[in-house]
Every structure is written in C-alpha cells, then in structure tokens.
C-alpha cells in the first residue's frame, strides 16, 4: 500500500506561484512512478505532469509547459509541482498519483495507470 498526502494549495492571483507537495509512505519511494492530475468543477480529471523513478524524465500536458515543473526528492519521499505564471484556468483540485509499475510514454498520462491517489488539494487562481 501507498499513502499519499498533498499540501500547498491555496488562493493566488493571476501570474502568481504555488508549490504543491505530495508526501508518500508505505512503499519504497524511489520505485514509484509519480504524477499530478487536476480536476476543475464540471470537468473530467486530466493529466498535468509526470516524473520518472529517477527524476530525470518529465512529461507535461501542453497547457502547463514552460510554467509548471515537476520534481521529486527520493530522500524526502516527496514529489513537488512548482506552478508559476498561474492562470484562472489552472483553478482545480490537484491530485498526486503513484504506481509501483514502471510507467513510460503515454501510460504516464493515463489515470488508469495509477493505483494510488491522494485526497487532493484545492488551487484557486483569481483574475
């Protein structure tokens, strides 16, 4: 089992920044494939970013490229999502996701590939 706990959400103005954190426990952290997803009101949950086990390979959805950075600290059992230049359309509940399988390519962007989820943290960007 893997337990995930997100933090760092909040209310920020357009153009501002936030850093989300997700701590994991229960399994060897460096074996986890990790990702961030988000769900806006009335919309389906969507992929935001993913990071490989080593932290070397990252993947982003087009709408956040150049603004968001995903990273992981295997010594601290934590994955981060640094969000800069935030826009109102980034408003959503952000979820951390993990899986013990080695996820590569398109699989890193699929909700169905991840078996473990956090409870979510709200990010609200005001215009």
Topology summary:
Layout: E1 3-7, E2 10-13, E3 18-25, E4 33-39, E5 46-51, E6 58-60, E7 68-73, E8 78-83, E9 92-99, E10 116-117, E11 121-126
Parallel strand pairs: 2-11
Antiparallel strand pairs: 1-3, 3-8, 4-5, 4-9, 5-6, 7-8, 9-10, 9-11
Provide an overview of this structure:
- By secondary structure, this protein is mainly β.
- Helices cover 0% and strands 48% of the residues.
- It is built from no helices and eleven strands.
- It has strands at residues 3-7, 10-13, 18-25, 33-39, 46-51, 58-60, 68-73, 78-83, 92-99, 116-117, 121-126.
- The strands form two sheets. Strands 2, 4, 5, 6, 9, 10 and 11 form a seven-stranded mixed β-sheet that branches. It has a four-stranded antiparallel β-sheet with strand order 1-3-8-7, with no helix packed on it.
- A hairpin with a 6-residue loop joins strand 5 (46-51) and strand 6.
Count every beta strand, where a strand is a DSSP E run of 2 or more residues: 11
What percent of residues adopt helix (DSSP H or I)?
A: under 10%
3D shape: globular
The low-pLDDT segments are none
Tally of alpha and pi helices: 0
Global Rg:
13 Å
Task: Put the structure in a nutshell.
The chain is an all-beta fold and 127 residues long.
List keywords for this structure.
mainly beta, 127 residues
């Amino acid at each position: 089992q893997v337990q995930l706990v997100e933090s760092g959400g909040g209310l920020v103005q357009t153009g501002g920044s936030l850093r989300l954190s997700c701590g994991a426990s229960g399994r060897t952290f460096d074996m986890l494939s990790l990702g961030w997803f988000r769900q806006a009101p009335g919309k389906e949950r969507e992929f935001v970013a993913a990071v490989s086990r080593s932290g070397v390979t990252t993947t982003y959805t087009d709408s956040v490229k150049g603004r968001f950075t995903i990273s992981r600290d295997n010594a601290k059992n934590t994955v981060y999502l640094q969000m800069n230049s935030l826009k109102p359309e980034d408003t959503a509940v952000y979820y951390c996701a993990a899986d013990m399988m080695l996820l590569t390519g398109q699989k890193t962007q699929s909700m169905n590939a991840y078996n473990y989820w956090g409870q979510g943290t709200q990010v609200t960007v005001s215009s």
